[in-house]
Amino acid sequence: MPKDHGIGASQKRREDVRFLTGAGQYTDDINTYGQTYCVFLRSDVAHGTINSLDTSDAEAMPGVVRIFTGKDFEGIGGLPCGWQVTDKHGEPMKEPAHPVLAQGKVRHVGDPIAAVVAESLEEARNAAEAIVYDIAELPAVVDMKAALEAGAAKVHDDLSDNLCYDWQFGSDQAAIDEAFSSAAHVTTLELVNNRLVANPMEPRVALGEYNRANDESTLYTTSQNPHVIRLLMGAFVLGIPEHKLRVVAPDVGGGFGTKIFHYAEEAFVTFASRQINRPVKWTSTRSEAFMSDAHGRDHVTKIELALDADNNFIGLRTDTLANMGAYLSTFSSSVPTWLHGTLMAGNYKTPAIQVNVKAVFTNTVPVDAYRGAGRPEATFQLERLVDKAARELGVDPIALRRQNFIDSFPYATPVAVEYDTGDYTATMDKLEEMIDREGFAARRKESEAKGKLRGLGINCYIEACGIAPSNLVGQLGARAGLYDAATVRVNATGSISVMVGAHSHGQGHETAFPQVVAEMLGIDESMIDIVHGDSSKIPFGMGTYGSRSLAVCGSAMVRATEKIINKAKKIAGHLLEASDADIELKDGQFTVAGTDKSVAWGDVTLAAYVPHNYPLEDIEPGLEETAFYDPANFTYPSGAYACELELDPETGRVTIERFAAADDFGNVVNPMIVEGQVHGGLAQGIGQALLENCVYDENGQLLSASYMDYAMPRAEDVPFYMVDHSCATPCTHNPLGVKGCGEAGAIGSPPAVVNAVIDALHSGGYTHVEHIDMPVSPHRVWKAMQG
Amino acid sequence: MYSFEIESPTSVADAVAALGKEEAQALGGGQTLIPSLKARLAAPSVLVSLKNIDEIKGVSVDGGTITIGGGTTHATVAAEVGGAYPALADLAVNIGDPAVRNRGTIGGSLANNDPSACYPAAALASGATIVTNTREIAADDYFEGMFTTALEEGEIVTAVRFPVPEAAAYIKFEQPASRFALVGVFVAKYADGVRVAVTGASEDGVFRWSEAETALTSKFSADALDGLSLSGDGMISDLHGSGDYRAHLIAVLTKRAVKAAA
Q1: Is residue A786 a contact partner of residue A489, using CB atoms and an 8 Å limit?
Q2: What average pLDDT does range A700-720 have in this prediction?
Q3: Are B177 and A710 in contact (CB < 8 Å)?
Q4: DSSP letter at A505?
Q5: What is the spatial distance between Cα B176 and Cα A261, in angstroms, rounded to a whole number?
Q6: Please, what CATH class does the domain formed by B5-49 belong to?
Q7: What tens digit of pLDDT does each residue of A434-464 get?
Q8: Which residues contact B250 (CB under 8 A, 6 or more apart)?
Q9: Contact at CB, B173 and A651, closer than 8 angstroms
C-alpha cells in the first residue's frame, strides 16, 4: 500500500483548490486605496544617446500625477549584482552602473527611459505617448564575437571594452596540455545554447505603497524571494532600512528563475510611492515582459574531449562566450561560472578539465538564471560531445558513458565540487529497462515503412542543487548567504503554522512541507499550514531557486521541528511526572517508555500556552521555534534520459514519440509533486530543444517579441512521459536525504532530443549532419539535410 | 487601446450606414483587430460590430453550392459543412484554438487577407464567389496581395459561395509559434479542372500554383507533380523558414493534399 500520510505520500496539492477555482491572490489582484498606475516609456532602439527628453506636454495631460525620468534618480543607487566574479588574472569583473531609469543612454530595446504615474492606466499610457524625446541611435553590438572585436561599439562608455570577465577554472594548464597531447582521439564540437525567454504565465507586477504615519514602505511583487528583494532594494538602491520595508510576494504564477532578480520596476514603484505619497502599481504587458524580464542561456561554446586508446575520457576543455546583455542582472555573473563550470565533469571521471568563459556585454536584455541556470548549458555541451565521440569511435553511446561513469562516492571532481552520493549505473540500467531498447530496431522499421526516420537519443546529467553552503559561495564571490530559515509556531490547540523563507510558486510547498512536519510529529497534515512570501511574517530566508527549497529550507524546518519536539517532551515529562529522556513521541502521543502512561499532542500544546501545571522554573511557556540551516554541500541529483522521435525527412519536422527520465532525487516527500516537477521541466527542456528561440536582428531589435514568433511548447508537442525516481541514493548531508527535483527535467532533456535527431538523420543516410543548433526547427533540420 | 464608440447594428444596411462615419471600422470576430487595438496599432473612432447581424450568419447547401454567411464563425463552418465539403470543414476546425474558432468569422478572415491565413486558400482553390453588400467578386479577382483585397471602403463580406468540388484537401504546415500556416496548400478537383491555392508562402499573399494545376488536371495523382518545383524568390523568408524552404514545402504539401483528396 502506498503511504497516504507523511513523507512519501502522493497527497493532492492543497493549493490547487484556490488556483483551480480562481481564488488565488496574485499581485495584480491587490488594489489599494488611492492607487495610481504606472507606465514605462521604453527605448525602441538598442543603443543610443538621449539628446532630449521633454515631459512638459505629457505632464499637462488628464490624470497625470507625475512623470519621472533619470534625473529623479541621480544620486540614487543602481540595481546591484549579487555575485562578484574574479577573472583569470585575479581582477574583479567589470560592473557597470545599472540605473533604475536611463541616465543619458539607452542600452537595449526595452530599457526604461521615463515613467508616467497617473490616475488610470489609460491616462498613463496616453501621457507616455506624449513624451517628446530625441535619441541619437548608436551602433549596437548584438553578436558576442563581434562585441569582443577591437573597435566594436561599447555598451558602456566608461568600460575599456565589452568584456565583463575572462574566467578560467579547473585543472592546471600542464595537466590539460598533457591530456590532449597524449590523446588517442579528440572530439570537438561547436554549439550554441539558445537564448530563451522564461514566459511565466503571470507577467511581473509591482505595487509600491508608502505609509507616511510610520515611514514604512510595502512592496507587493511577483518574486521568488521577498527577503532578497528587501535586502537588495532597501540596502543598495533606495536606502530604506529593513524595519521600514516590507516585501510581499503573494501567489506567484510561475517563476522559472526570472522572478529571482531585483528589477528596476520594483525599485521605481517603491521610490515613486514615497515621492507622491500614494500607492503606485505597474503591471507588465506580455510585450514588455519579452523586453524587460531577464532572459536565459545564450552561450556559444567550443568543447573538446580527449580520449585514450581504450576510450577513457582523459581531458575536457571548453571555451564559452556567455551573453550578459546590457547590464548585470542580480545573479547573471554566477550562472556561466560557478553554476556551469563546476558541473563540467558531469557523470564522468575525466581527470583533467578546464573551463574558459568570457562574459560579454551586448545591447540586449540582461541574461540571468533560467530553470537550471548554467547546469543545462554544461549538460548540453558535454552530452552532445560524448554522443559525437561515440559515433566517431564507432562505439555504443550508452557503453561509452557507462565505461566512464564515476562509480565511487564521495567523488571530488577536478572542477571543485564533491559529489556525496549517486549511482549512475543504476539510473542507466533503469532507463534501459524503461525504454525497451531491444524493441527500438523494430520501431525504427515501422517508422521507415511510413517514410519517417526514427532516432533514439540518450544522455546523462548531474546537477548541483540545494544552493548553497554560504562560506563556500562567499569565497567564490557571492554577496549573500544562501542558508534558509523556518519558524514552527505551535498554537495552543495543537495546530501549527510554519513560516518558511522558501517561496512556493508552483512547487507545491504548501502540501509537501506539512507532510514532513506531520511525519515528525505523528499528527495529521490538516493541522499544519505553511506561511510564506511576506517579509513581515516569515524569518529571513533566501527564497526559492536552484531546486533548494526542500533541501535547504526543508532542513531548517526539520531542525525547528526537532527543537519543538525536544521542548514538547520536557513539557510531557512534567505532565507525566517522568524524565523527558524517557518520553517517546509516536502518532501524536507522548508516552513514558515502557509504560502505558501518555498524554496527547494537544494536551502538551495547551499546557505550553496555559501553563498552570508547567515547569516554569525550567522552561519558558509557549511552543515556537526557529531554525536557520546552512547546507554543508550542494546536493547532486542525477539521472539518465532518453528521447525517441520520428523525423519527417520531407519537411524536417520532428515528433517526439517517447521520453523517459530515470532520476535520482534522493528521498522523495511527495512522489506526485516530484513527477509533476519533472514533467514541467521536461516540457521546458523540450521547448528549448525544438521550439523556443529569442532572436535579435543585427540592430538589436527583438524579432521574437511576441507569441506570434516565440514558440512555446504546447501539450501536443510533448509525449506522455515515462518517469522514475526509484534509484534513490539519499543525500548524505541534509536531515531529509533530499536532493531537489525542480530543474532536472529542463537540464536533462535538451541533449536527449538533439542526440535523437542526429541519430535519426544518420539512420537515413544524412551522415554529414553532426550537429543542429537548438531549437531544432523543421527549417533547420531541412537545411542541415541539404548539406 | 484608445477610446472608441461602438455600434452594433442588426442589419447590413444599418452597418453600411454606420461605416459611413468618419474613421469607422468594421469589427468581425475581432481576432486580428482586437489585438491591434490593444497594442494601440489601430485607432478607429467608431467600431461597427457585425456580430448581431443575423442575415450574414449561417450555412446553406443548395445543389452543388455551399453558401456561408460572412459572419459565420469557424466553429459553425467546422460543424456544419462537413457533410457537403469535408475539406473545408477540416480547414475550419484546425484554425487557431477553440476561442479563436468561436469568435473568428469567415468574412473577417477574407476581408483581412492575412498572408498566412487558411480561408484565402480555400476560397481561391474553390473558385469561390465573395458576396458583398454591393456586388459579387470572383476569388480570382478578390485577393490582391498581403492584407489587400478588392473590397472598397465600407464594403462588407456578406457571404461566400463555394462550388463543391469532386475531391479536395487542405494540408497546413504550421509555423511553430503562431500556428498559422507556414505553408498551407488547398487542392480542389472540379469537373473542369484542378485548382491549387497556396497560403503562407508568398510575399504577394495567397496564390494559385498554375503548373501544378495543369499537371493535376491532366492526371489527378501525386506523381503527376514529380519534378515540379517553385523558386524561393518572392517567398516569405523569416525566423521560421527561408523562401527556399517554403518553396520546398509547397511541393511536398501539394503532393500530400492530392493523396489526401484522392
Answers
A1: no
A2: 96
A3: yes
A4: S
A5: 30
A6: alpha beta
A7: 999 999 999 999 999 999 999 999 999 999 9
A8: B183, B185, B198, B201, B209, B230
A9: yes
Asked if the domains A31-138+204-283 and A299-468+633-786 are classified in one and the same CATH topology, the answer is: no
Domain ranges of chain A: 16-22+483-629, 31-138+204-283, 299-468+633-786
- List the single residue in B173, B177, B252 with the smallest CB-CB distance to A708: B177
Query: By the CB < 8 Å criterion, does A693 face chain B?
Result: yes
Q: Which of A641, A644, A640 is nearest to A455 (CA)?
A: A644
Cα of B132 to nearest chain A Cα, Å: 31
The predicted pLDDT at position A1 comes to 65
Q: Please report, for chain B, the start and end positions of each structural domain, with discontinuous segments joined by +.
A: 5-49, 54-163, 167-261
Fold of the domain built from segment(s) B167-261: Enolase-like; domain 1 (3.30.390)
Q: Considering only CA atoms, which of B62, B63, B100, B56 is closest in space to residue B78?
A: B100
Q: Cα–Cα distance between A354 and B29 in angstroms, integer?
A: 59
Reading the block at residue A217, the C-alpha cell is 514602505
Chain A residues touching residue B242 (CB < 8 angstroms): 779, 783
Closest partner CB to A708 (pick from B40, B178, B245): B178
- CATH number of the structural domain A31-138+204-283: 3.90.1170.50
Tell me: domain B54-163, CATH 3.30.465.10, correct? yes
DSSP state of A35: -
Please report residues of B whose CB lies closer than 8 A to that of A779: 240-242, 245
Q: How far is B247 from chain A (nearest CA, A)?
A: 11
Cα end-to-end distance, chain A, whole Å? 56
Fold of A16-22+483-629: Aldehyde Oxidoreductase; domain 4 (3.30.365)
Give the CATH number of domain A299-468+633-786. 3.30.365.10
Looking at every residue in chain A, the average pLDDT score rounds to: 97
Q: By C-alpha distance, which of A448, A525, A461, A410 is closest to A755?
A: A461
Q: What is the pLDDT of residues B200-231, one digit of tens each?
A: 999 999 999 999 999 999 999 999 999 999 99
Interface of B with A (CB under 8 A): 1, 3, 39-40, 173, 176-178, 238-242, 245, 248-249, 252
Nearest to A427 by CA among A752, A12, A45, A729: A729
ipTM here: 0.96
> What is the average pLDDT across A2-6?
88
The nearest CA of chain A is from the CA of B175 a distance in Å of 9
- Please count the CA atoms within 13 angstroms of the CA of A410 that sit on its side-chain side: 13
